[in-house]
Amino acid sequence: MISLTDVTKAYPTQSGLHVVLDNLSCVFEDKVSYGILGVNGAGKSTLLRLLGGAEHPDAGKIERSGRVSWPIGFAGGFSLALSGEENCRFVARIYGADFDEVIEYARDFADIGEYFHMPVRTYSSGMRARLAFGLSMAIDFDTYLVDEVTAVGDSRFREKCKHVFTERRERSSVIIVSHELGTIKQYADRYALLRRGKLELYDDLAEVEKLYKTAA
Fold this sequence. Notes:
Elements: E1 2-13, E2 16-28, E3 33-37, H1 44-52, E4 59-64, E5 68-72, H2 84-95, H3 99-110, H4 125-137, E6 143-147, H5 155-169, E7 173-178, H6 181-187, E8 190-195, E9 198-202, H7 205-215
Parallel strand pairs: 3-7, 3-8, 5-6, 6-7
Antiparallel strand pairs: 1-2, 1-4, 8-9
Helix pairs in contact: 2-3, 3-4
């Protein structure tokens, strides 16, 4: 479970302070797949970074129970000088996972060939996202945070993503953000709309779709 209480996050701009999340409170329950819709710039990626602990709120409190992944699709945590294999080994050490199992799973899933043994700085953005996804799936988390990574790669890779999500949803929570309604329909059990700094949770997808179309 992840709970947010009065969470606020803002960034300075030339025209003043831009409030991305405004006194936001909500609870993400265990073993539920949440789909969060929002237009570009609504703060979806910021929200995921806060949920995963990559950033901290300016005000308010975030509480987590269980192991939460980093935002899949957010590959900024890779050391660019290290190879994909070396990065996997480093992450496995942090989470106390078996080195060989993590490396083999991530290598097979990312399917980037010899690049797996080359420095990450030589990767395209898509290759980094594929590695980030494979590495995330190689470690058991109670909650997986996903930032539109399913749009990465060809149809075969997207089918692999769909398959592994189906398996993970049976035992873990998934929080996925997207500006595509189709992605939310495919992966989520409950739905949310992020707009004007607020997050509104719904059980009815049709209601979210109607509100999202007026916000887009």
